[in-house]
Design a protein that fits this description.
alpha/beta; Conserved hypothetical protein from pyrococcus furiosus pfu- 392566-001, ParB domain; 13 helices; two-stranded antiparallel ribbon; single chain; 291 residues; disordered N terminus; 16% strand; flat; 3 domains; 7 strands
Amino acid sequence: MAKPKQRGMGRGLASILAAEEQPEDAVKGVELRTLPVELVHPNPKQPRRTFDEDALRALADSIADRGVLQPVLVRPMPGGRYELVAGERRWRATQIAGLSDIPALIQERDDATTLQAALVENMARADLNPIEEARAVSALVEDMGLTREAVGRMVGRSRVAISNLLRILDLPDEALDLIGEGRLTEGHGRALLLADSHENRRLLARKAAAEGWSVRVTEQRARGAASADRAKASRTVAPADQVAAASDMSDRLGKVMGQDVEVKPKGDGFAVEIRLRDAGAARRLLERLNA
């Protein structure tokens, strides 16, 4: 019988946390035990900040009736306590259900692989909001030094989709809050980025949420604001084919260099910007180019 399709962004927890995704010396054997709930505590770097109370109560009802069917994943900590690597919803629902114990897979992990597993497990869920997704990706890329292509493979998205997700974090806080609250979508966020200034993005986000603009309307208003700003600086909007060519070159150059590359139309040609996180990233790029 064919296996059911995985839902969400990724391929499922078992695949994501497979040993081949981890350094050989970072992940040791796994032990299945039943642990007192009070000895387990959340991962402080968990990207999820909000939990749907109705969904948690529904899960708690199921756990009260049938028990915890899938163990949580934890790592041992000093003092006989355990830190969650994956399964915080099950842990919270178990407490709501009034159960004192929870089945757990105990696995020795270092800080880096714990963070990676926690972030990717959350990315694999279908109900993370776009801001939580973007911050999870940012942590994998910026804090752990993974490439966007590697993160994309882990969560079942293309490198372009990962780059687009990260770009949302360039929005002002007010716009990020509106997306996180579900009043605007990820598509609205990308549309807002078409406006040149943070002030315009903030005003447009506020109006889009208040007036219920579609993504297309938001895009049109953002382009209009950008055009007005550029007109003041005596600049013209690039032709659509030039913009498309710049986007294609950004993606191709990014794959070749392993870095975030932005190509922008400039006059009849293009301007190329390579964003490097630090001196180490610059050295690695030079080594790659000289290889």
